[in-house]
Specification:
Layout (H helix, E strand, L loop, with lengths): L5 E5 L5 H11 L4 E5 L3 H7 L11 H8 L4 E4 L2 H7 L2 E4 L19 H13 L5 E4 L7 H11 L6 E4 L9 H6 L4 E5 L3 H14 L8 E5 H32 L3 H9 L20 H14 L3 H28 L8 E5 L14 H11 L3 E5 L5 H12 L3 H4 L3 E3 L3 H5 L4 E4 L11 H6 L6 E4 L6 H7 L2 E4 L12
Parallel strand pairs: 1-2, 1-4, 2-3, 4-5, 5-6, 7-8, 9-10, 9-12, 10-11, 12-13, 13-14
Helix pairs in contact: 1-3, 5-6, 9-11, 9-12, 11-12, 12-13, 13-14
């Protein structure tokens, strides 16, 4: 039907912000309001410095903000005025209680749903944008129905954007997935939501399924992607033990069109707010359905990732003559991948923590991550106060500054700027022998070797210069 669409999105985070900005850009006639309980976040969205760094986001926000894109703390008003309500709140792994360490914490989700139930006075389409366990839509429907909101529809519309490329992913999505109840009302709701995406996404890319398939597909997609990274990382261990080169293997294997070349880059380990959380969520679901072998199968994707991080740290310690105590180590990159300031589950955090345990002195440089965030992450993981951490850790403003007097460079994020540094100059000011541990395989190993570095790259033949790595 032609009823006017007005959108409200609860949660102004990495997903809510970019997705709604894209919808506002593509649908100038639709008013899009993003609400959040964090006043500080809303204030940042309304300022010149947005709370998240995402290439291309600033331009779209500047173009649409105040036109048909609004950021506000007024959650209730936003809910009341909307016809479609997206819920894009965080769903982290539970820290306490049943399923702790595996199950998704749905506290924020339920709070948002209960807020909708309490204040919405006209029928709404409620859209799950957050990644949630299967059957969450059903649970949310129950909360709404119990509050007398029986004409509300709950849809699942998981988000597949990746950080660092979010605006591009949103502009050209491989697919948009909409799951809904198998009822007439459900079909109407799906149709209305697909009308929004149809402004720029070709019809054949808008997939409609039942609600459980949609919820499960999101968990499966992330599990498969992470599984590829863990598989190539497992292969990297075989390469180091055998003299094969993981990049050559990935290239040869990936050229098989059935396998494909994407997501086969060996690394220090995957990070980000989604992979580990979503796999553990799937593992928990499998366990609660009595599918313990299936659970174990997926669980190994995360275990392999933990092993990879530990293997990398062991190489560093082993390489540096089995002791890093008192040695300065330059950690290049703290974000979980390039082109983002996000550090959630970043491999760098664990590498840093392990090196701190060995009493190394660590000099961190990351081009985008806020210093405050680094202190916060290290406090969380070590349980120490910032003042205690500062005894081991310094944050520097450039590769050059971090490398001064360092025994080793450790690349933990694949920032492009690390590729163009003058490593001859860097080498000159380092302690000798100078080591390089490339956890992302982005640097030219031959060149660094010829400068004089003892090098280690993931899944590459070992450097025999000193026979320590
Ligand atoms: P985030 O932490 O960046 O943002 C969530 C926001 O929701 C926060 O600003 C928080 O203040 C707000 N919030 C929480 N409870 C609220 C409430 N009751 N009312 C109003 N605001 C509330 O999280 P994110 O990275 O955007 O992730 C959101 C969801 O999307 C998660 O389920 C995640 O798994 C999923 N997801 C994330 C990505 C990603 O790349 N980050 C990609 C796909 C899916
Ligand atoms: C992921 C999914 O890609 C996205 O579809 C989903 O919506 C959210 O989760 P994101 O976590 O933002 O996105 O980044 P992604 O590009 O998937 O990278 C995740 C981690 O895997 C990063 O730490 C990255 O460095 C690592 N990675 C990725 C590898 O180590 N090797 C690869 O080949 C690919």
């Amino acid at each position: 039907n032609g009823e006017e669409i007005k959108i409200c999105c609860i949660g102004a985070g990495y997903v809510g912000g970019p997705t709604m900005a894209k919808i506002a850009e593509k649908c100038p006639e639709i008013v899009v309001t993003i609400v959040d309980i964090s006043a500080a976040r809303i204030e940042q969205w309304n300022s010149d410095v947005l709370p998240i760094y995402e290439p291309g986001l600033d331009d779209v926000v500047k173009k649409c903000r105040g036109r048909n894109l609004f950021f506000t703390e007024e959650v209730d008003k936003g809910i009341r005025e909307a016809t479609i309500i997206f819920v894009a709140v965080n769903t982290p792994t539970k820290k306490i209680g049943i399923g702790a360490g595996r199950a998704a914490d749905l506290t924020y989700w339920e709070l948002a749903a209960r807020r909708i139930a309490a204040v919405a006075d006209t029928p709404k389409i409620v859209v799950e944008k957050s990644t949630v366990p299967i059957k969450t839509a059903e649970a949310i429907s129950s909360v709404l129905h119990a509050a007398g909101r029986t004409s509300f529809s709950v849809l699942s519309n998981p988000e597949f954007l990746a950080e660092g490329t979010a605006m591009d992913d949103l502009e050209h999505p491989d697919r948009v997935l909409i799951g809904g109840p198998l009822t007439e009302a459900g079909a109407t709701a799906i149709e209305r939501l697909s009308q929004v995406y149809a402004h720029w996404v070709p019809q054949e890319r808008i997939i409609k399924t039942n609600v459980w398939s949609s919820e499960l597909s999101k968990l499966v997609a992330n599990s498969f992607l992470a599984q590829r990274v863990s598989s190539i990382n497992a292969v990297s261990a075989i390469c180091e033990a055998s003299g094969a080169d993981v990049d050559e293997v990935a290239r040869a294997v990936g050229m098989d069109t059935r396998i494909g070349h994407k997501f086969l880059k060996a690394s220090v380990g995957f990070g980000g707010s989604c992979f580990q959380k979503d796999i553990l969520n799937l593992v928990y679901l499998c366990q609660s359905m009595g599918l313990s072998e299936v659970a174990e199968y997926f669980h190994w994707v995360v275990k392999m990732n933990d092993l990879q991080k530990e293997r990398f740290v062991s190489r560093i310690i082993h390489g540096l003559f089995n002791t890093v105590t008192g040695k300065r180590i330059a950690l290049l990159g703290f974000a979980f991948k390039k082109d983002t300031g996000d550090t959630r589950e970043s491999a760098a955090i664990e590498v840093c923590q392990r090196l701190m345990q060995e009493r190394a002195e660590i000099a961190i440089y990351d081009p985008k991550v806020e210093h405050e965030q680094i202190w916060y992450d290290l406090s969380e993981v070590t349980g120490l106060e910032q003042s205690q951490i500062e005894k081991y850790v310094k944050i520097e403003g450039s590769v050059q500054a971090a490398a001064k007097d360092a025994h080793a460079l450790v690349v933990t994020t694949e920032w492009d700027e690390f590729k163009t540094v003058d490593y001859r100059k860097v080498y000159q000011q380092m302690s000798k022998p100078a080591f390089l541990f490339d956890g992302r395989n982005i640097l030219d190993r031959e060149e660094l070797h010829s400068i004089g570095f003892v090098t280690y790259s993931i899944g590459k033949p070992l450097d025999t210069k000193l026979n320590t790595v």
